[in-house]
Amino acid sequence: xxxxxxxxxxxxxxxxxxxxxxxxxxxxxxxxxxxxxxxxxxxxxxxxxxxxxxxxxxxxxxxxxxxxxxxxxxxxxxxxxxxxxxxxxxxxxxxxxxxxxxxxxxxxxxxxxxxxxxxxxxxxx
Length: 125
Prior knowledge:
This protein is an alpha+beta fold. It is 29% helix and 34% strand. It is built from three helices and six strands; from the N terminus they run E-H-H-E-E-E-E-H-E. It has a four-stranded antiparallel β-sheet with strand order 2-5-1-6. Strands 3-4 form a two-stranded antiparallel ribbon. A hairpin with a 2-residue loop joins strand 3 and strand 4 (74-79). The longest helix has 21 residues, at 30-50. The two termini are 13 Å apart. This is YCII-related domain-containing protein. Pfam families: YCII. It comes from Kribbella soli.
């Protein structure tokens, strides 16, 4: 089953890795942030080797977004972002896990300082 790990963050300025651009992340000493980054890279390498990591992307700043809504009889586009939250989608990873429990175990490892992680299974048709 495939799951998406959505990373939401409120970064000022916008950048990646998110830990370097959030207030709570910058409060962590640089050597600790570096160790956390190394652990995260090692986890991604393990997930890639096991076949559980399908893909992942860091997203550009919300100000670069276009929003499409249906109005009347046609779609209308506007400049973004228009999320109802100060936290914006910063990136995502797609995992292919045997069980929901495994996906939840992995999703918890994606949580970092200043981030909110959402785990959502793909919709099966």
